[in-house]
User: What shape does this take?
Amino acid sequence: MRKRHTPTETVNLGADDGRLLVQDQSLRDAIVAGLIVVILFSALWAMSSTLINRIFPWMTVVLGILIGLVIRRAGRGLDWRFPVLAAAMTLLGALVSNIVVAAAFTAAALETSTLTILRAVTSMTWPVFFDEAISAADLVYAFCGAGAAAFYANRRLNRAEYHALRMWQEERNNLNRHQ
Assistant: This one.
């Protein structure tokens, strides 16, 4: 039976390759991709909820997983900023999605469009929304989704890439100590 990690499979990556991994990160791309997911997910969740006439609060966990995977792919992040961004965007996305879903159900009851309801929101509407539309279950699912997003947000490295990154970090730390 073939071994999974044989010496012939090793790829020689150096500290410069670790530097390239760090330079490959893009917080801007991660933010843009996350915002696109929030917008599309909000619209799809509102449409599907009104179509079947049910709201599934656990959909925010799905939102979190999607945001985490998209931020991993678009941002190619290696440090703490990407999981924090994914968790924050999931919490924001859960709030936005719940607002859009509540507006869609209100629009259906008033026989108007969701955009009409969203445009008519005032400062007097928000307390009613938070009292009536957001429940404890919504908050629990939102925080579970944020945890899932944070889990999936960072780039996964293979052994050679991880070794190259560590070599670059050690090289950089040695330079900083000698200065």
Summary: The chain has one domain: 24-161.
